[in-house]
Design brief:
Blueprint: E1 9-12, H1 18-31, H2 34-70, E2 84-86, H3 87-101, H4 103-113, H5 119-135, H6 141-150
Antiparallel strand pairs: 1-2
């Protein structure tokens, strides 16, 4: 039996700081296909308006594409409705949060997840996204509603 350590539960979504919980939910929604991406876009529309949402969604897509194509191993994640947080999801959320707070710390985390030559690009994307989210409206009703449906 193969054990995917990156999927090991390390916490509960409701116990994460709101910013980190947002990153986990956004990752799951984006990876869930068109339906999940529509929920994520709605959240971004509430925060940024139509034009800003398109820009932020494109940046988020760029970040995930970079991570998925240059990761040292596949990033494991839980389902959209899961209330626990997997190890890889926790590291992803911490990485994205730290990109805003402490670039050097984010770079260290990025080097653990990604090839060293793409780590600075990932940090810059995560930092830009994180700063955009900080400047945006507080938690949008769509993500709150989605979170309630998931629990």
């Amino acid at each position: 039996m193969r054990v995917d350590r990156g999927a090991s539960a390390v916490g509960q979504l409701d116990l994460l700081p709101e910013s980190e919980a947002w990153w986990v939910r956004a990752l799951r929604l984006w990876c869930d296909g068109e339906g999940g991406q529509a929920v994520l876009r709605d959240d971004l529309r509430h925060r940024f308006g139509e034009q800003g949402a398109a820009t932020v969604f494109a940046r988020f897509t760029d970040l995930l594409s970079l991570i998925f194509h240059h990761a040292r191993r596949p990033l494991m994640r839980h389902g959209v409705a899961c209330t626990c947080v997997g190890a890889d999801e926790a590291v992803f959320a911490l990485f994205c949060s730290q990109a805003v707070q402490d670039r050097e710390e984010a770079m260290m985390i990025a080097c653990l997840m990604l090839r060293a030559d793409v780590a600075p690009i990932a940090v810059s994307l995560a930092q830009t996204l994180g700063l955009d989210l900080q400047r945006a409206a507080p938690v949008a009703p769509t993500m709150v509603a989605a979170r309630r449906r998931l629990n």
